[in-house]
Design brief:
alpha+beta; about 325 residues; Cathepsin B, Chain A; 2 domains; seven-stranded mixed β-sheet
């Protein structure tokens, strides 16, 4: 499996970003065309060519500005010698944009993830940002990424390199009000990593910031990156191709928020017997096991756990494979 992470940034030192991205995935790109008009900021990126034809695409924008804004990603892809029309994700945050299709010519977007029936040879991304005062956003530091994966079969890794457990504070989502407690694994995981990065925020506050009314959910992945950016912490989304890429992040001191799903009996020792979708924080490993902070544990004391590496690979990498990586940006220029 191959994943390219196309990365473009503004006013953040490129070396600081490179230190947060697995080298096997990083593809740096040239600057976009940036325009502002009618309450919208548009970032238009150059044509990108993945190393291998891809079928899974996941965009994110980390804009380091503590102001409310809406964001939508728009993609056109070349497959079979033809460019598709522009296809849009759901809008994240307060605002609306001009209507665009969510599927065309075999390219489809399910809320925040693009998939293609035909392998994509080239692609172009643009990001539409809306706010009452876009001038404040135009000068803010940002990182935009696009994870592009071929979805070829993954080779499981039978043993991991020992990685000391990162000191990620433990938080239980069950401490939240009962009406949302079982629904906020994503914002609770983000809250744990923000605290680790020195920017603590309550899970309930983050839940309000990441809530996506059209889907009545708290787990839209780019919304988590948006919320962290509003608190000064940069981040990106990646369809991790293998355990080695995750281990690289952990070895760099970067926790990984992993999107897992598993049936009964597939994740030994988990507080949830089974789930079609759950977020937890990977914090280290000791060879055959992975250290995690699982936010759905009933108390904070029970949040730190360890799961078998082979079971994590099945529940995470063989299914969604998606992870959030948050990091404190250094070398901000003009910020």
């Amino acid at each position: 499996m191959i994943t390219d992470l196309f990365v473009v940034s503004s006013a953040i030192d490129a070396d600081a970003i490179a230190r947060a991205i697995p080298p096997a995935c990083l593809v740096e790109s040239s600057s976009p065309r940036v325009t502002a008009s009618n309450g919208e900021l548009m970032l238009e990126f150059p044509e990108w060519r993945p190393r291998a034809a891809v079928r899974h695409l996941l965009p994110s924008l980390s804009l380091l500005a503590d102001v409310p804004y809406a964001v939508r990603f728009e993609l056109t892809a070349r497959a079979g010698g033809q460019w598709s029309p522009w296809v849009a994700t759901a809008t994240i945050g307060p605002g609306t944009f001009v209507n665009l299709p969510t599927a065309a010519d075999g390219l489809a977007c399910d809320i925040d993830v693009y998939t293609s029936a035909t392998p994509i040879e080239r692609l172009r991304l643009r990001v539409r940002v809306g706010a009452p005062d876009v001038s404040a956003l135009a000068s803010a530091p940002w990182v935009a990424t696009l994870s592009a994966c071929d979805l070829d079969p993954r080779v499981p890794e039978t043993a991991g390199v020992p990685i000391p457990r990162l000191a990620v504070p433990a938080l239980s989502q069950i401490d939240a009000p009962p009406e949302i407690a079982l629904r906020i694994c994503s914002p609770t995981s983000v809250a744990m990593v923000l605290a680790y990065c020195g920017a603590p925020e309550s899970a309930v506050t983050l839940a309000a910031d990441t809530f996506h009314a059209p889907t009545d959910g708290y787990g839209v992945w780019p919304a988590a990156i948006r919320a962290a950016g509003r608190r000064g912490i940069a981040g990106y989304l990646l369809r991790f191709p293998d355990w080695s890429s995750a281990a690289w992040c952990l070895g760099q001191g970067l926790p990984v928020i992993a999107s897992v799903s598993y049936a009964a009996g597939e994740l030994t020792g988990a507080p949830l017997a089974e789930t079609s979708g759950h977020l937890l924080v990977l914090t280290g490993g000791d060879g055959d096991y992975v250290f995690v902070n699982d936010p759905v544990a009933p108390t904070a004391a029970e949040v730190p756990r360890r799961y078998r590496l082979d079971e994590i690979q099945r529940a995470w990498l063989s299914r969604s494979g998606v992870g959030y990586v948050l990091f404190r940006p250094e070398g901000i220029r003009g910020g």
